[in-house]
């Protein structure tokens, strides 16, 4: 399973640095996934007023793509994400096991986050910031995610990303990438048949290039 080609194709097309990448999947094998690319950039809007020209800026919306590659289990899916996050120079990769957000008493924020993870703006979300979505089976995926829960992975790439010029990571090659393979292995999942407890697992790849002395730490605050 290769997510790297899809991510790099979008980076070439948009020519913007990435602020982050996420992948949302249902806890059911061989179901579609949603790959979301979060861009760092702003769109300028110019309007004429009685006082002259005025400008406003809004963030470039995220790009959400439906991925239909087959996968047998969550470990296989996570292994592929570990590889791409490692190669793109991410400091870490975080997995979130999210509870069903349609359960009685669930906070509205969980519903907003769930629908955004699958490329759909919640009615309470600002429509101007809605993602550019190419997710054709979003309604079916949201129906299952809302009742059974879902899996979400997030990482922030250095190669092609916002932090490529400021990263202080001793594990990176010039250009902000790492050579495969990733040394991390997928860790155990909770019961993903019906996720009853939220769970977060973090894989750390990066290592600071140098340690700050106590005097240097004081000057950073």
Description:
This protein is an alpha+beta fold. The protein has one domain. 24% of the residues lie in helices and 26% in strands. The chain has helices spanning 4-14, 74-87, 108-117, 138-148, 214-219; strands at 18-25, 33-39, 42-49, 52-59, 63-67, 92-98, 132-134, 150-155, 199-204. The strands form 2 sheets. Strands 7-5-2-1-8-6-9 form a 7-stranded mixed sheet. A two-stranded antiparallel ribbon has the order 3-4. The longest helix is centred in the middle third of the chain and has 14 residues, at 74-87. It is globular, with a radius of gyration of 19 Å. The termini are far apart. 30% of the residues are buried. The model has no long low-confidence stretch (mean pLDDT 88).
Write the layout of secondary structure elements.
Blueprint: H1 4-14, E1 18-25, E2 33-39, E3 42-49, E4 52-59, E5 63-67, H2 74-87, E6 92-98, H3 108-117, E7 132-134, H4 138-148, E8 150-155, E9 199-204, H5 214-219
Parallel strand pairs: 5-7
Antiparallel strand pairs: 1-2, 1-8, 2-5, 3-4, 6-8, 6-9
Concise overview:
The chain has one domain. It contains 5 helices and 9 strands; from the N terminus they run αβββββαβαβαββα.
Give me some keywords for this one.
single chain, 221 residues, alpha+beta, 7-stranded mixed beta sheet, two-stranded antiparallel sheet, 5 helices, globular
| Quaternary | single chain
Mean pLDDT: 88
N- and C-termini, Cα separation = 43 Å
Shape: globular
């Amino acid at each position: 399973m290769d997510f790297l080609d899809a991510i790099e194709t979008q980076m070439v097309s948009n020519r913007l640095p990435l602020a982050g990448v996420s992948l949302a999947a249902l806890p059911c094998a061989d179901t579609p996934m949603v790959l979301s690319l979060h861009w760092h950039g702003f769109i300028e809007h110019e309007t004429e007023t009685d006082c002259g020209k005025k400008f406003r800026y809004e963030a470039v919306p995220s790009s959400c793509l439906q991925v239909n590659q087959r996968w047998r289990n969550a470990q296989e899916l996570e292994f592929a994400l570990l590889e791409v996050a490692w190669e793109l120079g991410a400091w870490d990769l975080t997995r979130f096991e999210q509870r069903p957000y349609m359960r009685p008493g669930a906070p509205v924020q969980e519903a907003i986050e769930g629908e955004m993870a699958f490329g759909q703006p919640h009615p309470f979300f600002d429509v101007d910031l809605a993602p550019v979505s190419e997710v054709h089976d979003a309604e079916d995926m949201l129906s299952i995610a809302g009742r059974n829960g879902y899996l979400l992975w997030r990482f922030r790439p250095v190669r092609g990303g916002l932090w490529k010029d400021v990263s202080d990571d001793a594990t990176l090659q010039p250009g902000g990438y790492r050579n495969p393979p990733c040394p991390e292995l997928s860790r155990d999942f909770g019961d993903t048949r019906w996720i009853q407890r939220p769970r977060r697992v973090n894989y750390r790849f990066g290592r600071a290039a140098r340690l700050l002395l106590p005097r240097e730490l004081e000057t950073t605050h």
